[in-house]
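User: Cytochrome b. Structure?
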Amino acid sequence: MVVEKHVETTGLLGWIDRRFPLTRLWRKHASEYYVPKNFNFWYFFGSLGMLLLVIQILTGIFLTMNYKPDSKLAFASVEYIMREVPWGWLIRYMHSTGASMFFVVVYLHIFRGLLYGSYRKPRELVWIFGCFIFLCLMVEAFMGYLLPWGQMSYWGAQVIVNLFSVIPVIGTDLSLWIRGDYIISDATLNRFFALHIIAIPLILIALVVGHIIALHEVGSNNPDGIEIKEKKNADGIPIDGVPFHPYYTTHVILGIGVFLMIFSAIVFFAPTMAGYFLDVNNFMPSNSLITPQHITPVWYFSIFYSILRATTDDFKYVLMAILALTIATWSIKWRVQVTTKIVRSGAGMLFLLAIFLMEAKFFGMLMMFGAVISLFFMPWLDKSPVKSIRYRPVFHKVLLSIFVFFFLLLGYLGMKDPTPLNTRLSQVGTLYYFCFFGLMPVWSQLGTFKPVPDRVTYRGS
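Assistant: Predicted structure:
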């Protein structure tokens, strides 16, 4: 085990250390926190997420100084920020660009976890914290999207909030409670503003702190999926590890420098990104009497919106058949009789009947949320004997590549009109999305796996 060294500090730092463990925290989480030697560029995105969280909080504070959470004044206050407040346009564009870039970074961070098995033992809790951060970020972004009170803000919120009304028994009351009124109104704007600037950020910060503490407790994963804590020298230091500071703090600075150049280029030259970051309809004040020709979500929600739209009446029965097949496959694979007992019971029959009688819209909502919830179960769905994609069979890499393709396709289709062709493509993508996770306990064990080396290796991603 590593012997903690006690270094006596003097002066102002010593005075602080005797009252607050500043130096000890620095050593534990930076200068004496050992990370694998073979990190690559995929490991930039966790730090970039921290940077973007700071950017969003700081720019958000400045925006609230001039924003009016009033349905009659909100849009005008945003225009005032853009036109009259010194550098207000820059703060607003940094915030809007930061929201989209936050999701870019988070999606790439999640993909790195899928590549290298960062959700596997002993990092299950790290992964679960990360999934909660993703959920929280989606809620935060949705509520923030309403605040400009433009046409797409208003009608996008109308569609999503009304979606809750299809929930049996409690749906109508729940959607009324979320809105605070019978329609999207001033009450909705006020409560979303309060949640966006106070409640959700506090929860998000707490989750990020928990994510980092859990990570530093078990240590970072690496591209080889090798636990560096298992091989230590006489001083208890991992042989394949280096201190996070200064080795990876300088490494991260490189990533931050490149990222800020891209971020600045978008802010100054293409803040709307041709309508993907800021919809053209949101530059028009909301009007409850005029519905935009096409109501589409901002790009980072389009994947899940595409799944929602794909769930038509006929497609619902296909999904039910896939669900039944998945449950049967699990039962056979794990040699359990749970499924048979549930089906034979009266409660099980009622449950199956309730699913059969569900509205397609409600079933679609379940699928939309299920697409996010599926990520939580990754540590237990993946039964592969190795963590990293480097040592898995080729067809595992093919399956993951196809998953990425359909993920991007669903995102694209979610921003397009629901034509018959687009709907069919969305249904194919949705089927693959859920089969990828649902059948993972089976396919993740198949094939011939490469031997994992004893020590970390150095090569490309």
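DSSP finds 19 helices and two strands in the chain. The first helix runs from residue 11 to 17.
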